[in-house]
Amino acid sequence: VLLRILYVFIAALMGMHFFGGRFDFPGEEKPRAHFDTIFASMLTVFQVLTRDDWNSIMFNAMRPQDAQSGVAWFSCVYFLALVIIGDFIVLNLFLAILIQCFLDAQPPPPPPPPTWGRGR
């Protein structure tokens, strides 16, 4: 669980650095999922990791503020890396550790009974 929280925190800090203040679109209300504060950023990363409408968050990050910013391609890379690393690798690593802990907690199987010369 700590590994997952640490990943969300690091991804939220990266999102704040790259996308902080970029979700203020003129003439529109600010979307609920944004990267302006650490709390909102962590909630946004969690929403992306649960894959709940993550593509609209990515498209909002791709909307150009200025044509020369080059954020559109980087937002695709950021969100795809967030989903691939966070959802597939970190989650599977967490599940592998959990399953290994359950297997270590089980008592060892009893030894097989002796065969006393039944060999053919």
UniProtKB/TrEMBL annotation:
Keyword set, alphabetical order: Calcium, Calcium channel, Calcium transport, Glycoprotein, Ion channel, Ion transport, Membrane, Transmembrane, Transmembrane helix, Transport, Voltage-gated channel
Signal peptide: none
Family annotation (InterPro entries): Ion_trans_dom (IPR005821), VDCC_alpha-1_subunit (IPR050599)
A molecular-function term among this protein's GO annotations: high voltage-gated calcium channel activity
Database matches in Pfam families: Ion_trans (PF00520)
BP terms from Gene Ontology: calcium ion import across plasma membrane
Compartments where located: Membrane
GO cellular component: voltage-gated calcium channel complex
Recorded topology in the membrane: Multi-pass membrane protein
Record field: transmembrane: 5-21, 33-50, 71-99
Record domain Ion transport: where: 2-102
Protein origin, superkingdom: Eukaryota
Protein name as annotated: Ion transport domain-containing protein
Provenance organism: Eutreptiella gymnastica
Species classification: Eukaryota, Discoba, Euglenozoa, Euglenida, Spirocuta
